[in-house]
């Protein structure tokens, strides 16, 4: 059986692109987990909210479909060993948080704290006091979602790279023996 010219061929460039696309969420989730691990040993410190914003960014693609993303932005002050520090660290999973509702709830809590001039707790890195987070809990479902996306893209990429178009086509050869 001959190889059909119309049969699909392996596209290793697509496979490599999918693998790289899978490495991005893997790196983001890995960085967030590493930041969370570091922040577990940080010192709880009283702080006051200076300002907080809930930003929404909307973009429209080339085919007219729009998508939006949200981000919680906060600025707060705290004292560390007699020095006043200002920080904007929300938490290790803030950059990859998918839930707008979760961010809106935190934003509302921070607005309330600012309006009532009440103290909140931030977690300060004692080795580098300018580094701090307001929230340091592990967001397991976010982590799992990003790992799942990474595995999906990378796995598909590896399958495409490893695909050999000649394996799917069974080749039969005939040998003839000439006797004189």
Total count of strands: 5
Portion of residues within helices:
25-40%
| Global shape | elongated
Q: What proportion strand?
A: 25-35%
State the strand order across the main sheet.
Answer: 3-2-1-4-5
Stretches with pLDDT under 50, minimum 5 residues:
none
* Overall mean pLDDT: 82
Distance between the termini: 29 Å
Biggest sheet record: 5 strands, antiparallel
N to C succession of SSEs: HEEEHEEHH
Helical stretch tally: 4
Q: What class, by secondary structure content?
A: alpha+beta
Set down the secondary structure blueprint.
Layout: H1 12-39, E1 43-60, E2 66-80, E3 83-87, H2 100-115, E4 120-124, E5 132-133, H3 140-162, H4 165-168
Antiparallel strand pairs: 1-2, 1-4, 2-3, 4-5
Helix pairs in contact: 1-3
